[in-house]
């Protein structure tokens, strides 16, 4: 240690105070890469013992990034800097690299490791024990380093390690709905992190930290602009800006993608048409692709929202989704780019049931898409509701790659104000059984390509990231970014384990904090379903803003934007009959699923009103009537938010005061809004049921009319200048 | 020191590494309140010696805030926490408080201290030596504490102190041009820091840090919404949000103000008119004022932009500015609120010379405004140009309080991309001699009320603050926020001293960094004048966006929005003749000023083309022709930016890598944009002068047409959704 420390022992005290001071203040910017000091001194000592030396030659950018991260992490957590050596010092050395960077290794890799997997292994090299982090590729090593650091972040042993892991999906992509004016559609964490005006000249440190965070969970792609795309993004002026971002991302194994406007050949290219079968249109796109790859050799490809919500598409020219997607696929194929073609479509003429639209439009094209097209399907058939049944397309297109689209930003889950941990929602969909290939053909296995190895695979998450200091608005919203990455890497991971890891890395490993807060996280999504849309209710939020309750909405732009279209409440009962007697949407599922959900007796309470119109007096499994059960769920949902807050308040002092106070305030606001949801919905549905709120439950504070008249101005997420009201 | 430090000496090393690690990473969020560790160990020892004990009773919020800041600062800089005592330990104790909080003090204050001044004094109390920080009020103590911390931040002695200071202006206010949708008009540092959607429930830590930063430089007011105001801000729903901010600000001695829309009685109140002489209108405003003060007992008052750029005002009803201002003043007077009435007006019918409009409209009303009205006048007659002569109203209204309005956000100074330290611009205006009360009646003395003690006084700065991590976009833009506070406190302070303080507090006290960078700062504004608008050119920027050069603009909404209106370049020469032979705007100044500037021989080069139309061949003081001088200035301006960048690059390693790298990139971009300004303007004016660019100067890279055709999309500062082009 430096001499002056002995000469000025007080310096130790100084330094330590400073550490404590620094550790206390935390605005959440560092996400789960806080690299907190390991508080267990004995454990820290053991770690340090094993990390005194390193063999870590780094010439490529990814290896340099891995090495920098490795040193930053160890410095932060253990305040050690391993001495660089060329020969292993037994028991005290860590060896990091590829067979190439390490000039051959005396070990063989399991084939499964592939291009992105890694090994972390305690082995003997020339009879000397060391910890080895290795992979076939530099990016694999980067992933290995992040996962090694995670072991220390979560205070696990690094002795006798034998970890081998690899991603189960090929394309693990964040979709940013960011506009070029820096507003973010359905974004609740401030403006876009992409400063297009200052790009390409100014490369914000934030871009690097964004890439680090993604790489730490294995996210390997980013679509940087809104699916409601601006043709301008394909202009040379903007491609230079995109290139600057791509140059940052590349180091971290992330490929950049763009959302494109299907009519770009007209708007940008000055052509008379964007008809995908027109030779001049094909030529324009091929030329544009060549141009893009000139700027960005590893460009990922296009994300396309076509013929949906007013966006142009092949149907505007009498062509099919396959025609449009394949034309773009041909333009990208020579450069190994892909087309992510969204299945979120509904016709401009209102269908009998919006639920059925995507299936009806895409099922006929199974097998008709080029190999580098992947159809991006939302987890559910409507639109990212608090709870949806899995999308009927999963399993229904055996010869078409389907990419899962989850929404991380909480458009329908309380914006960045409500604590909703989404991993249980993801898992519920991924583990649902489509029965399309017999029992056990889960959605997870479908998107992993278990039933058709030829297909490319992927998962997309609509980002919840903005320019807020803490990136996601709500400190706990960071967990959804983190969990998405973890589950895109391996869709079958447990939400509980992911939550525990995230809490340890983000806040503390103190069990007296982790254990109760993990419980809160795991219960949070069900709470929100209960106070917003229990028993299978869906799409009853405020119109346009999607903020707050709006079960009374019946005058939206089109019938299937109305809440009344979905809940169908009347004096007789409530719910959308999607059995054969109704819209028959259930026929889009495998017979086993149809039979299970189509029978009101076997249909789980959670999905009941998705598929059945039931009388208010209908007897539920609980023994309660449907009305009483509905009311009970709304009250339970709000009550559980209150309890969550009480639990949190007991944890003061266990984490930094800033984030503790922020979450405390947020939970109070969440409770306020949960009560509004509860009271507005119960009062509204009561106007049909004419039945009383069970005795003992507090009466709503206001009359229904009060909630209907609530106005909200400048609600975030609907464009910077909008002045929408509920 | 804690025992375990002796038992585990390695911990010292640990802690120290961590400090080094933390100190290295810096995103600029902490502004000039970094509280860096004092690197000079000997000096630190001396400081610590004198700060071992403290007498600091704190019961009120401002005193609690002062104490928390005091402890945070000492912990960060010295890692000491003075032991709280009730009796002074001689030579080692600091005593902080008011006579009241300290139960009487054996010293008397100079009267000048007033309600916001403070004393920092090394004195003997009962024969015991101590350092005393005291004031008449709690906020005065807070200011004293910040200034004591500044002594340590800038490594000055705290022995034998005798500091007495007080603000020279009463109202020291930041004007935020922030819209309720979180866009910021002419804002270049991201979106608004006010999260109106989450307010009042969520009180962001950022609001507290904002208030701390303001208090540290004595800013005591904030107008939180855009002068192009939205009537909605006066609705109960929004007043609750404003109240939440006011509750934060109050602790730090900051009063909150609102920009109001003059037509609010119609839009919000449902009245048929907003005529200020209508009894029902007076009644509405009086009632609204009562309502506001119900929420915010110390509400500051209203800022009003009336009958300007399409905003409604008293003239819309055939009334005068005085009618409008006085009506609002009457509503606020019972609550001790003030009206800040902006003089930035120009008629909807185009005046002969926009320069003269404010003077013509306001001069006649001298003495006609109520005592709680202050007229807010921009530093120059046009609009925050890189250089303007001082506004002719200063000194011309002996019986009317005039509040200086400076613009911190760099609408015309390169956005948040160009390093422009504005204190020299402020000083140039403040030290200008109006001669209205004889020689030496500077603008500074006018706004300080030296010539009419009855008047209230103030200074406003249009904020350059946004949600960017570093608050102001450019790390050096923070210096303009800081300098504004310092000069609002005392308009006669030296820009050089302020720059040195800011550099020491923000980056380091290392002279090898401070000295060259201070030079850069002090020269920066002149550089920008040279590459944008040398020799008195003004208003030749891109239309609407105000981004980049646009000397050719001749098709704007109205003649006096055109660049050609201002530079009047033709084959004969260039410049706006404002002598008696021209618009005679000079007649609005005192005879001495008129004589000096009106004579092209005595008129300083800096103002020449503001007042004279001169031939291209006109011989300048330098001996060059006007054309050659103009070209020389443009080239000198761009060259000096290049030199600035070379100087900066030599400073690598002296500060944190993040901010070093960011500024390095910014300087490269500034140079690029400076060259664009230079080449576009030189080529454009050459099309009139038909004279050559002096030999040796590099030729412009492109032809004039190239620069005219440049298009910029989604330029920041013109509203979130705008898609303006140059």
UniProtKB/TrEMBL annotation, chains A, B:
What is the phylogenetic placement of the source species in the record? Bacteria, Pseudomonadati, Bacteroidota, Sphingobacteriia, Sphingobacteriales
**Record-given protein name:** Xylan alpha-1,2-glucuronidase
Q: Where is the Alpha glucuronidase N-terminal domain?
A: 31-148
InterPro entries per UniProt: A-glucoronidase_C_sf, GH, Glyco_hydro_67_aGlcAse, Glyco_hydro_67_aGlcAse_N, Glyco_hydro_67_C, Glyco_hydro_67_cat, Hex-like_dom2
Signal peptide positions (record): 1-25
Which EC number(s) does the record attach to this protein?
A: 3.2.1.131
GO CC, any one term: extracellular region
Boundaries of every Glycosyl hydrolase family 67 C-terminal domain copy: 472-696
From which organism does this entry originate? Mucilaginibacter celer
| Quaternary structure annotation from Swiss-Prot or TrEMBL | Homodimer.
């Amino acid at each position: 240690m430096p001499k002056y420390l002995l000469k000025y022992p007080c310096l130790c005290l100084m330094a330590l105070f400073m550490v404590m001071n620094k550790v206390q203040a935390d605005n959440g910017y560092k996400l789960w890469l806080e690299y907190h000091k390991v508080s267990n001194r004995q454990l820290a000592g053991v770690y340090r013992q094993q990390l005194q030396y390193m063999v870590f030659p780094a010439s490529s950018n990814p290896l340099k990034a891995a090495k920098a991260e490795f040193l930053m992490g160890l410095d932060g957590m253990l305040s050690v800097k391993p001495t660089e050596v060329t020969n292993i010092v037994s028991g005290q050395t860590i060896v990091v690299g590829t067979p190439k960077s390490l000039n051959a290794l005396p070990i063989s890799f399991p084939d499964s490791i592939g291009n992105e997997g890694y090994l972390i292994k305690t082995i003997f090299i020339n009879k000397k024990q060391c910890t080895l982090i290795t992979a076939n590729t530099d990016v694999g090593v980067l992933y290995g380093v992040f996962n090694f650091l995670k072991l220390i972040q979560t205070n696990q042993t690094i002795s006798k390690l034998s970890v081998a892991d690899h991603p189960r999906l090929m394309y693990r992509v964040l979709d940013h709905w960011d506009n070029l004016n820096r507003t973010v559609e359905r974004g609740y964490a401030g403006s876009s992190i992409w400063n297009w005006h200052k790009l390409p000249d100014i490369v914000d440190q934030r871009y690097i930290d964004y890439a680090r965070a993604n790489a730490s969970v294995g996210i390997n792609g980013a679509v940087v602009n809104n699916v409601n795309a601006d043709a301008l993004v394909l202009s040379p002026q903007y491609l230079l800006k995109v290139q600057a971002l791509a140059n940052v991302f590349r180091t971290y194994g992330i490929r950049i993608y763009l959302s494109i406007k299907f009519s770009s050949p007209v708007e940008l290219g000055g052509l008379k048409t964007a008809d995908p079968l027109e030779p001049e249109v094909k030529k324009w796109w091929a030329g544009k692709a060549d141009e893009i790859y000139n700027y960005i050799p590893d460009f990922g490809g296009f994300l396309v929202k076509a013929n949906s919500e007013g966006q142009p598409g092949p149907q505007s020219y009498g062509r099919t989704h396959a025609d449009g997607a394949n034309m773009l696929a041909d333009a990208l194929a020579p450069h190994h780019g892909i087309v992510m073609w969204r299945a979120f479509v509904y016709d401009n003429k209102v269908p009998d049931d919006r639920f059925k639209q995507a299936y009806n439009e895409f099922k006929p094209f199974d097998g008709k898409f080029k190999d580098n097209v992947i159809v991006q399907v939302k987890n559910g058939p409507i639109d990212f509701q608090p709870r949806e049944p899995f999308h009927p397309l999963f399993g229904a297109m055996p010869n078409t790659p389907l990419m899962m689209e989850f929404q991380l930003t909480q458009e329908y889950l309380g914006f960045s104000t409500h604590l909703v941990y989404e991993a249980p929602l993801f898992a519920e969909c991924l583990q649902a059984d489509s029965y399309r290939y017999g029992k056990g053909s889960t959605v997870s296995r479908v998107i992993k390509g278990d039933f058709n190895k030829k297909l490319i695979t992927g998962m997309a998450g609509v980002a919840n990231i903005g320019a807020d200091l803490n990136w996601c608005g709500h400190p706990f919203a960071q967990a959804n970014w983190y969990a998405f990455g973890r589950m895109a890497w391996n869709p079958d991971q447990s939400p509980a384990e992911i939550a525990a890891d995230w809490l340890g890395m983000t806040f503390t490993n103190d069990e007296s904090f982790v254990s109760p807060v993990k419980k809160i996280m795991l219960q949070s999504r069900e709470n929100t379903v209960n106070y917003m849309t229990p028993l299978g209710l869906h799409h009853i939020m405020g119109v346009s803003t999607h903020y707050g309750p709006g079960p009374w909405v019946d005058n939206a732009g089109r019938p299937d934007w109305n809440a009344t279209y979905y809940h169908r409440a009347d004096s007789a009962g409530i719910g959308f009959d999607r059995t054969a007697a109704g819209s028959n949407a259930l026929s889009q599922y495998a017979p086993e699923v149809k039979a299970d959900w189509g029978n009101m007796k076997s249909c789980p309470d959670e999905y009941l009103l998705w598929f059945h119109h039931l009388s208010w007096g209908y007897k539920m499994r609980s023994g309660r009537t449907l009305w009483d059960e509905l009311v009970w769920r709304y009250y339970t949902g709000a009550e559980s938010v209150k309890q969550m807050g009480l639990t949190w308040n007991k944890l003061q002092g266990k984490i930094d005061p800033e984030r503790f106070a922020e979450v405390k305030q947020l939970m109070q606001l969440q409770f306020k809004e949960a009560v509004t949801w509860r009271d507005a919905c119960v009062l509204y549905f009561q106007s049909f049921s004419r039945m009383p709120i069970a005795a003992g439950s507090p009466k709503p504070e206001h009359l229904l009319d009060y909630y209907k008249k609530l106005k909200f101005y400048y609600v975030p997420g609907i464009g910077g200048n909008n002045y929408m009201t509920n």
